[in-house]
Structures are given as C-alpha cells and as structure tokens.
Amino acid sequence: MEQRNLKRTHFSFMLPIKNNKVGISELKPIKHPATFQKSLRATLIIGQVFSLFPVQGVSSKSASNVVFVWCSWKFIYLLLSLLGQIFITMMCLYRVLHNTSSLNVTTPVIFYGTTCVTTLMFLRVAMLWPALVRHIAHVEDQEPYYDKNLTYKCNTTCAVVLSLALMEHILSLLSAFAGTMVCHGENLTHQTFVKHFYPWVFNYLPYSFLLGVLTQFLHVQSTFIWNFSDLFVICMSYYLTSRLEHVNKQLLSAQGKYLPETFWRAIREEYCRAAQLVRQVDDVISGVIFISFANNLFFICLQLFNTLEDGIKGNGECSSRSKGNTSSLLGGYEAAAYFLFSLVYLIIRSIAVSLIASQVNTASNVPATVLYDVPSPVYCVEVQRFLDQVNGDNVTLSGLQFFSVTRGLLLTVAGTIVTYELVMFQFNTQPQSSDASSTTATLQL
Description:
Shape: elongated
Strand content: under 5%
Strand order of the largest sheet: 1-2
Order of helices and strands: HHHEEHHHHHHHHHHHH
Distance between the termini: 97 Å
Radius of gyration: 29 Å
C-alpha cells in the first residue's frame, strides 16, 4: 500500500498539472498601431458627405484599396456640386455688376467663389491621395508606433467642429426667418423666405420650389465645406505632429545618456523619414491650407469691420430689433445672437487651426535641445549631422509655399487684421446699398 502511494506521488510530481483557467492579471492589453487610415477615416467619410474626396476605399484598413476613380458616383457627386457652386457664383457676380459695389454685395461672390476653389483643391488632393497613403503605409510598416489618443482626438475634433458649424447654421436660419417675418409680415412661405435670403438668385430668376431647395442645399454645402477645410488641416496636423513626437519621446528618454553612435544614426534616420513625410503631405494639401487661411482672414476682417461700423446687431432695413418684434424665438435678437456667435466661433476656429498646424514645426525643433546635451565622450559625427539638419531644415506646413505655418504666423495675421480694420474704418464713407440690406451683410453666410 505504501509503495502504491509512493508511485502515485511520484507520477503526480513528474506530470504537470494543467490549469485551463486564464489569470486575468496575466493578460496584457493588445496594442494596435496608430495608422493613418484609421485616424482619418471618420474625417474623410464626412468630407465625402459634402461631395469632397471622391476616393474609393477610405474606410479600408489596407492602403492598396485606396484608389481614385474618375467614373464613380463620388466623382459625379463632386462634379454636380461644383457646377451648382459655379452657378451660384455667377449669379452673385451678375448681381455685383448690376448694383452699386459694396462689401455687402461682394461678400457672396467671395464666399461661393472660394467654395468652388476649395472643391477644386480637394479634387487635386483626391487625385494625389492614393500615392500619399501608400507612402505613409510604407513608413508605418517600417516604424509602427502606438498613439491611442490620435484617433480619439481626430474624431472628437470632427464632432466639435461640425456641431458648432451646425449650431451656427441654425442661428443663421433663425435670423433669416425673423427678418423675413418683419419684412413680409406673418405671410411666411418658402417663396418669401428664399427671396429674402437669396436675393442674388431670385431677384433675377423666377421662383420655383425646386430652384429654392437647390439653392438652400448649395448654401448648406458651402457652409460645411468652409468648415471642413479647417477640420481637414487640423486632423492632418494631428497625425504629422504625432509622428514627430514619437521620435521626440525616444530622444527625451535618451537625454544626457552615454549611447553609441548606432543609436544616433538610427534615430536621425527616423527623424529624416518623419520630416520627409511632412514635406510630401505639404505638397498635397498646401492648396487647402492656403485657401483655409485666406478665407478665415477675409471673413474675420469683414465681421470685425461690420462690428465697428454697425455694432453687434443685424443691420438692414428689415432688422427685427428695429421694428420691435418680440414675438420671435429670441425676442428680436436673432441677428445679433447669430452675429456674435459666428464672430466668436470664426475667431476661435482660426486660432485653433493656426496653433495646431504650427505644432508640426514646434515638434520638429524639439530634438535640438536633446542633441545639445549629448555628453562629450559620445559626441560623434551622427550627432553633429542630426543637429545641423534640425537647425538648418524648415519642417513645417505651408500655404502653397507663400507662408509657413509657425506660431509667429498668428501674430502676423493679427497685425494684418488690425491694420486692415483701421484703414477700412477710416476710408469707408460710402453708404450701404439698399439692395444689400436684405442680405444682413455676412451674417447669412
């Protein structure tokens, strides 16, 4: 009996005991690389809703599935939208030629004209997009990195920007409804509304319900295209900054340490690939950056000028405040509420685009502080080459190479705005055109 027990214990010692239960504490979270396709997926899909980005495969995980196809419903949608925008622009231009020239009459031409240019810029981006995505995928395969906040930042920014844009458009509609009720009494119909809101179309063409709906759709589309151009620049800047910060984290962890020359060569080559990626992205999207900054600059100047000229209120002969209408939703202050919200939102959005896009340049200069702290015994040719490249190279986004988006650009633009406002406020003595009063300046744009 004792011998049998000894054998049993002997075999229990020799045979491993299998345990099918998995310890939860031993599990490690699975990390997924922060890919370019995944980070900008929601942004690009939103762009396609507004007729931009006629590219196939934007929601695919594989870069090989991203292609630009001329004969596709996305391209046809863009082409029809572009023709519609050109039609509205021509109607606005016809109105300018047949009325006294003023800022209020010219503003719709610039608004819809820049929408056409923005659409063409995004068409160029779409044509170059497949090659850019494949190049970025190749870089990511060589140097995968894990930024769990990148996709979250892009999606959150999309939600915030589009929500504020929607709120701005709703306030513009409330302002237009209130102005129409004051000008036309309680007889508020679709015909009276579109004639009041879009005089550049219905002052010269007969009203029809289909034309009214089409004009409203093109107006909404133009408004969101304007906002999307800023959103696109922000999300692209997020990704490029993240790539550079990935290099910076490795450098900051090595600051002051005695490391071999091979480390500095490897990290310098990785920085070179990130800098080259910024240049290639800039070659593709620099047109969008230019039109985005130019658009924001013009409308900030225009809104501030109207503020200095008329105060924060809806100007025009049919202003609900001037008629004392208190039966409306905001008690006659719809135009003032929209004007104030639009001005503040435009300034904040423009500042955000400038600061976030300038982070690319700021992140590219971080390695210099680490390289200055390399100990003398390990200072080598690779460190010197790295330092020369950081100090001598200008890694930044630009607007068609006319300007570089750096932190100093914000102060330059602010100085330009102040100079413009002083000059325009001093020399503008021409009275507002009566035909322009119904548009309530830029408030309805």
